[in-house]
Automatic annotation (TrEMBL), chains A, B:
<dbReference type="Pfam" id="PF00787">
    <property type="entry name" value="PX"/>
</dbReference>
<dbReference type="InterPro" id="IPR027267">
    <property type="entry name" value="AH/BAR_dom_sf"/>
</dbReference>
<dbReference type="GO" id="GO:0005886">
    <property type="term" value="C:plasma membrane"/>
</dbReference>
<dbReference type="InterPro" id="IPR001683">
    <property type="entry name" value="PX_dom"/>
</dbReference>
<keyword id="KW-0728">SH3 domain</keyword>
<dbReference type="InterPro" id="IPR019497">
    <property type="entry name" value="Sorting_nexin_WASP-bd-dom"/>
</dbReference>
<dbReference type="GO" id="GO:0006897">
    <property type="term" value="P:endocytosis"/>
</dbReference>
<feature type="region of interest" description="Disordered">
    <location>
        <begin position="61"/>
        <end position="88"/>
    </location>
</feature>
<dbReference type="GO" id="GO:0035091">
    <property type="term" value="F:phosphatidylinositol binding"/>
</dbReference>
<dbReference type="InterPro" id="IPR036871">
    <property type="entry name" value="PX_dom_sf"/>
</dbReference>
<dbReference type="Pfam" id="PF14604">
    <property type="entry name" value="SH3_9"/>
</dbReference>
<dbReference type="GO" id="GO:0097320">
    <property type="term" value="P:plasma membrane tubulation"/>
</dbReference>
<dbReference type="InterPro" id="IPR001452">
    <property type="entry name" value="SH3_domain"/>
</dbReference>
<keyword id="KW-0472">Membrane</keyword>
<keyword id="KW-0968">Cytoplasmic vesicle</keyword>
<comment type="similarity">
    <text>Belongs to the sorting nexin family.</text>
</comment>
<feature type="domain" description="SH3">
    <location>
        <begin position="1"/>
        <end position="63"/>
    </location>
</feature>
Length: 534, 534
């Protein structure tokens, strides 16, 4: 990212022995990274000293553009903080086998160079098509579209379409898709036993006789009512498993890794809320809410079983396109003329949506910051001006008692109170809106990959149809497998549309209600003050 | 004043042939003057080009300090705009005789050097005493206190106290002061026929066959219901007469002279509101509301009579301390032990009040500017973010109509509407509050001069008491005249206290009501939007 300048609003003393730096109110810093961890930025001062500082302590100088949002990306290289420690009881298996499994699905049937080139050429066209509606370096999709080749390779699509993956052990569990109409080509079977999971306020726990401390989140699923304790690193492992397994399903993002600092409590509480959003999305998804690794994550309380479950998850071969082998899709063939334009439209739709969601997410973050800092400060200043005038009225000699003094001081107190309301309110409206947009930005960032996979699957199918060496019986199987994948993609799209119209819409409504409550609160404070005048 | 840097928010094209300069959004300017005229600042850009530009088009860079308020000072040297033209029908007498008259009262009885020095020494002490409670270069009093010598000279205090002004023609009109109690040493007689004056929306008029245009304000006093037409320059002449005449009474300030530009209509309407504030203060004051020059200003419609009235006003010799000869004060002697500490307290009180009023005035100006620019922009941006998301929802293919689209677009429209409300509202709350504070800042800036005049009068009296050459009969007259002046000062103080508790308090209440209306309006907009969700 490009660097930008900020002005320091408040002094901050970095903690010794960490990457934090000291900053002094009034000085100008150059920001070099905003994706260090939630609430922290990296930059250097005019003396060239660099380090981390809290984002909330600085103000962007160049004016109207809000700072860009830290990407919800890879774990940082750095080793600060709690979440990067890997000395937990299950560490031996926790990270060691990640990434082994789906390399098995990266075998290529067509290994000759000609075909390889042909594929690459197709990917070029696709990525151009997928990216054509987007603004310059905006949104989260561009980067992903460029990675289409690697995501294709990882997806094991060829093996799946050509049937060479058919010898893989298939799980008994089937996910059903219904075709209610040609308008909605596919939808997931409705969740038969819906449930919720509550994540309680996190606790700081210690281990190694108190030498090391970490944050433990208590999760209680409604179906079992048995609390399990999970750390962020467990979520992180889970998320890695989910993204490895599901190329045809969009996975909600986890909150950024956090650099622990003096704002721990505030940040940890916010992370809890963000993890709750992640959990909620998982619970509402017909496939994700019942998949083995998630259920294991939600229920396992025994150390031995935990390790066994982890090993099972990491050995799962129903990953990428092969996951479609676990799908029970309608028998009816899908006409390309029906599916193709819809996939194209959806790509455009998701691309535009991704940008809008990112934009609103930035607005929410910007407003949250402004409520906590600027607006609060503005109203405090207004309050102080009135209060000082009220006090000056009172200052006069004895016997000249002024009713105006009390009234004007009351106005002052009221505005100072409203300033505090701004700060408190931001947790109730802008922050939850940001958290919700963050989840959906992750989803709209994933969906183009899902849609592109369908396009590649169709091309692969057509390739087979043109290839005279492929026997008719095999071709029928290829078509069927391509259809199952297309049904899966449409079921996933349909799920997203439903979420947009229920969950996302409800989030908007809740936001509006909270804003309304806030302004009603302001009104009642002003009314009380006005009543005291009479 | 010190210069400071601003960032240009919007492009602005200066009008050709004026001192206005072109500015371009994003560039940095150095501001050299803020007291050019209301809404205009002077400065230069990085190329060194200098000129005027609208204050509202720029944003101070260095952060939290609001820009200092242009002082309500002398007429600008420049000759732009309407108000500086002096070719009106009454110009020959309008400005030419200003300042002739009160030079008559600058005669000194004690012309020997020793006494002059003694007086200067006293003034030094007084100005130190008056200034001791003030912050550094804050408030409007410091400067005035330093001018105490010249205001003393102009006041004609010596002539009045020593009785050498007694040969001046005394007007028949007497202003009565009552002493109800020792707590309130003096109060003006209550206005027997209270009245109001409405100033109607100003009209642009032309003269010299349309070659010259000017702004005419229509004033209608309630006692006559006869409309008179006055220009700003007439107000300016009136104000000069009032300040020349009344050293024992605080005169409300006129709005700053205006540089006419493209914002004429908005600025002229605001000036009308400011002139109405000036008029209101005049009408409520027991002395000012009935003094000849004011009544002449309010009622004269005949050109010949206007010129005669002007000449009378300019020849008035009951000016400065001599005005006390028109006072009908209680006979009872005032004990120095009663008056002295009260005058000291009042000086401290007024000094502190002046600072508080200036501070609130700055806050009001700052908030007005923020409502019109920043807050409006913020809410527009919020609205646009929601609206864009709602539009992206809609973008999907046919048959996938989204209720969420309409709802989210409604949220967007609502916030854009609230942005506009901010802009409109500022005229209803922050601007009137600023105008009111502006008047009172003028008053609290004058009151120390009034109080210091009383202290000088007491010193002069004591000097005479110590002087064995002054006969007892003359001494009794000196004491009486000093008492009349003290009564006048206390009546004026008392009037100010009453205004504070009625007029200023009412302004606060009105402000609060307007703020309440605004937030109620926001609440109802949000409620309507929420209702549409269901």
């Amino acid at each position: 990212m490009a660097t930008f300048k900020v002005k320091v609003l408040y002094d901050f003393q970095g903690e010794g022995g960490t990457a934090e730096m000291n900053i002094v109110a009034g000085e100008t810093l150059t920001v070099t990274r905003t994706d260090v961890g939630e609430g922290w930025w990296e930059g250097f001062n005019s003396s060239g000293q660099s380090g981390l500082f809290p984002e909330a302590y600085v103000e962007r100088i160049s004016g109207s553009d809000p700072p860009s949002i830290p990407a919800p990306v890879l774990p940082p290289q750095n080793n600060w903080g709690d979440d990067e420690e890997d000395d937990d009881w299950d560490d031996d298996t926790m990270y060691s086998e990640i990434g082994n499994n789906h390399s098995q699905s990266q075998q290529h049937i067509y290994s000759n160079e000609q075909n390889q080139n042909q594929l690459s050429h197709q990917f070029d066209n696709l990525s151009l098509g997928g990216g054509s509606n987007m603004g310059d370096n905006k949104g989260t999709i561009t980067k992903k579209s460029l990675n289409i080749f690697s995501s294709y390779v990882k997806s094991g699509l060829e093996g799946y379409i050509l049937g060479t993956s058919s010898n893989l052990p298939v799980s008994n569990k089937k996910f059903r898709i219904f075709r209610d109409s040609d308008e909605i080509l596919g939808r997931w079977e409705v969740i038969s036993n819906p449930y919720t999971v509550q994540i309680a306020s996190p606790k700081k726990a210690t281990k190694m006789g108190g030498l090391k401390s970490f944050i433990a989140y208590q999760l209680t699923p409604s179906f079992s009512n048995v609390e399990v304790s999970r750390r962020y690193k467990h979520f992180d492992w889970l998320h890695d498993r989910l993204t490895a397994k599901f190329n045809v399903i969009a996975i909600p993002p986890l909150p950024d890794k956090q650099v622990s600092g003096r704002y721990e409590e505030q940040f940890i509480e916010h992370r809890r809320a963000q993890l709750q959003e992640f959990i909620n999305y998982m619970c509402r998804h017909p496939v994700l809410s019942t998949c083995d690794v998630w259920v294991h994550f939600l229920t396992c309380t025994d150390e031995k079983q935990w390790k066994q479950g982890k090993r099972n998850a990491e050995r799962d071969q129903m990953v990428g396109a092969n996951f479609c082998m676990s799908i029970d899709a309608p028998e009816k063939e899908i006409l390309s003329s029906l599916a193709e334009p819809r996939v194209e439209d959806s790509l455009n739709y998701v691309t535009r949506l991704d940008q809008s969601i990112k934009n609103l997410m930035q607005t929410a973050q910007d407003q949250h910051k402004k409520c906590v800092n600027m607006y609060k400060r503005e109203f405090m200043r207004i309050g102080e001006s009135f209060f000082a005038l009220g006090s000056a009225f009172e200052y006069n000699q004895q016997g000249m008692y002024s009713k105006a003094s009390v009234d004007v001081k009351n106005i002052g107190s009221t505005y100072m109170m409203i300033g505090k309301l701004y700060e408190e309110q931001a947790k109730m409206d802008w922050q939850p809106l940001f958290d919700k947009m963050y989840i959906y930005k992750g989803i709209t960032g994933d969906l183009p990959d899902v849609l592109n996979l369908q396009r590649l699957s169709e091309q692969k199918k057509k390739e087979c149809e043109r290839n005279s060496q492929v026997p008719q019986t095999a071709l029928a199987d290829v078509r069927r497998r391509a259809d199952v994948l297309t049904y899966t993609v449409f079921a996933e799209l349909n799920h997203f549309q439903n979420e947009r119209d229920t969950d996302l819409r409800l989030a908007m409504k809740t936001f509006l209600q909270e804003q309304l409550n806030f302004y009603k609160n302001v009104v009642s404070k002003l009314e009380e003050t006005l009543d005291k005048f009479d």
